[in-house]
Specification:
The complex is a heterodimer of chains A (about 260) and B (about 325). Chain A is an alpha/beta fold and about 260 residues long. In chain A, about 35% of the residues lie in helices and about 25% in strands. In chain A, the strands form three sheets. In chain A, strands 8-9-10-3-11-12 form a six-stranded mixed sheet, with helices on both faces. Chain A has a four-stranded antiparallel sheet with strand order 2-1-4-5. Chain A has a two-stranded antiparallel ribbon with strand order 6-7. Chain B has about 325 residues and is mostly helical. In chain B, helix 5 (about 85-95) runs antiparallel to helix 6, helix 11 (about 235-240) packs antiparallel against helix 12 (about 245-275) and helix 13 (about 290-300) runs antiparallel to helix 14. The chains are: A alpha/beta (about 260), B mainly alpha (about 325). The interface of A and B includes residues 108 and 122 of A.
Chain lengths: ~260, ~325
């Protein structure tokens, strides 16, 4: 299905080194519009770092990022690699939504304030328009009745849904989910998955890092197994999670989780 | 409030004890020799009987012996704590010589001595309050000017300190290092007395505000930097992730969250500031401390100092109360 389309985002040979550790080792990846890609793997395998590299929260040491066919993030001046101008980086981030493991809602703003902050401050839309967008997004995640409370009064699941609404308010072309349910009590995971499902059904392109294999199997078009900074395997979820998984390492990982 | 009232009462009690000691030191001059002899032997009633024998003078006659005797009687009665008899002897003089200043002063002193101590302290307060309040106005002006200048200066220094631009952060580090590391008094001296040597002469108020402003900017700079860096790093990432610039993230997300954490230490600083303004009395500014000092040196009355202490306490109490309220308001979003 992806043969004719231009990838929405293309990572080429991404390498990220921390002091002594190479977190991501020359990874390349294409994500096509509408695709739902799930990355799994043991902790410390570089999944989150890779995700954060896409919206430049992590500055990588090597490799290129192309978004909608254009080179983004880095420029070369005098033979040295630099981060692009802040303005260009902000423009890119505004088009990519991100949801964090620990929500990171702005605690000093109401739920509505959190969601309208992007349109209001970044896109410089008027207060009325921003509020309308925020109300619509809160409707979508089913929390419009909570719009006037502060995040401190919400449950973890509600917080994460607000965080999703906040990202959606920017009308992003790509959504990144960095372990969106890992910080939640088990009984709250479902409501967040349902919200992500709704988005998936609307055709949103998304990249999800998760430890919930059931969710990965249900939602993903494609699953990637990452370990020690590299892609060990990728495939369609059906075969990936089948008992006949050939890769012993992956089978061991899945057996521990399922 | 209860706290403040009880402290003020304690100060007043302390005062009344001190004034009592001062007034007991009445100066005696022996005048009548015979009475003096009896007095020397400790026979005070005898001395009074002798003195009583000195009659009122005939018309136009010399009354100095009579005046001296009645003054002496009044003093003896006063020393026996028979205030009514003392006053009667005094009245004998004033009936004949209403303008006799010695008798008048003695009567006034006696009356003041008869007055309960708290009333005499109150009278002192009434006498000192106007100039102390004038001084307090200047103190408040200094405090408010510094409170306007130093948070802005502090914010700039804090942002400079965490800047990735090396020269900027080094400069801000230097400012903090210098102004925290030298006495405020020395800084004020330098600005007021030292700068004229470089051709910059500043009026006292300007010099005081610059000195206090720089000093408190340095302190607040460190406090604000600490508060900014105490905000969860995820907040900056979340702000960046929706496309905010560093400036927008600071202004909209990070700095508003520091307010609650800033209030206790900043309240502390501003209370210290109220008292530190006393230092500017050394550079020709008449504020509360200087006014109290002037009154004390003129009247040698400790009530002036105690009253100044009360005014300082009142000011700091108001600030304490205010900052508690602001802290509560600033953290309202954290309550469930």
């Amino acid at each position: 299905m992806n043969d004719v389309k231009e990838p929405l985002i293309r990572l080429v040979n991404i390498t990220k080194r921390f002091k002594e550790l190479t977190a991501v080792k020359g990874v390349s990846l294409d994500v096509y519009p509408g695709e739902k890609l799930v990355i799994i793997g043991p902790s410390g395998s570089g999944k989150s770092t890779l995700l954060r590299a896409i919206n430049l929260l992590e500055e990588v040491d090597e490799g290129n990022i192309r978004f909608e066919g254009r080179e983004v993030g880095y420029v070369t001046r005098l033979g040295k690699r630099h981060l692009d101008k802040p303005h260009n980086i902000c423009t890119l981030r505004a088009e990519i939504g991100m949801v964090f493991q620990h929500f990171h809602l702005f605690p000093h703003m109401t739920v509505l304030g959190n969601v309208m902050e992007g349109p209001l401050t970044v896109q410089k839309k008027g207060a009325d328009e921003s509020r309308q967008i925020a109300v619509d997004m809160l409707d979508k995640v089913g929390l419009s009745d909570k719009k006037d409370v502060y995040p401190a009064t919400l449950s973890g699941g509600q917080k994460q849904r607000v965080a999703i609404a906040r990202a959606l308010a920017m009308k992003p072309k790509l959504m990144l989910f960095d372990e969106p349910t890992s910080a939640l009590d088990p009984e709250l995971v479902g409501e967040v998955f349902d919200t992500i499902h709704t988005l998936a059904d609307e055709g949103m392109t998304m990249l999800i890092v998760t430890h919930h294999m059931g969710f990965a199997r249900e939602l993903a078009d494609r699953v990637i197994f990452m370990e020690a900074g590299s892609f060990l395997a990728e495939g369609e979820p059906k075969e990936f999670f089948s008992k006949g998984q050939e890769n012993e390492r992956i089978r061991g990982f899945l057996n521990r989780l399922l | 409030m209860k706290y403040f009232v009880s402290r003020a009462l304690a100060a007043l009690l302390f005062l009344s004890m001190l004034t009592g000691i001062c007034q007991a030191e009445v100066n005696y001059d022996a005048l009548s020799r015979k009475a003096s002899d009896l007095m020397a032997m400790g026979d005070l009633p005898g001395a009074v009987e002798i003195l009583k024998q000195i009659p009122a003078p005939e018309r136009n006659a010399d009354g100095s012996a009579f005046v001296a005797s009645r003054m002496q009687m009044a003093r003896i009665y006063a020393s026996l704590e028979e205030a009514d008899n003392a006053l009667a002897a005094n009245q004998e003089i004033l009936a004949l010589y209403p303008d006799n200043s010695e008798a008048r002063n003695f009567a006034a002193a006696l009356k003041q001595q008869q007055m309960p101590r708290w009333r005499s302290v109150l009278a002192d307060c009434r006498r000192f309050l106007p100039s102390l309040l004038k001084g307090a106005t200047m103190t408040l002006l200094l405090v408010f000017c510094t409170m306007l200048v130093s948070p802005l200066g502090g914010l700039l220094i804090a942002l400079g300190r965490i800047s990735t631009l090396k020269p900027v952060s080094a400069l801000c580090w230097f400012i903090i290092w210098f102004f925290r590391g030298t006495p405020l008094l020395l800084q004020l001296f330098f600005i007021y007395y030292g700068l004229p040597a470089f051709g910059v002469t500043l009026p006292p108020l300007t010099a005081a505000v610059i000195g206090l402003g720089l000093n408190y900017s340095a302190y607040l700079g460190e406090i604000i930097r600490g508060a900014i860096q105490s905000i969860d790093h995820g907040q900056m990432e979340a702000a960046k992730a929706i496309g905010m610039t560093y400036g927008q993230a600071m202004r909209r997300v990070i700095i508003p969250q520091t307010y609650k954490r800033l209030m206790p230490p900043v309240g502390n600083e501003f209370i210290a500031l109220i008292k530190d303004t006393a230092l500017v009395s050394t550079i020709a500014m008449v504020e509360l401390m200087r006014s109290a000092d002037q009154l004390f040196n003129t009247y040698f009355n400790i009530t002036a100092l105690a009253l100044a202490a009360c005014i300082y306490l009142l000011l700091t109490s108001i600030f304490t109360f205010m900052f508690e309220k602001i802290e509560y308001r600033a953290g309202i979003y954290e309550r469930r």
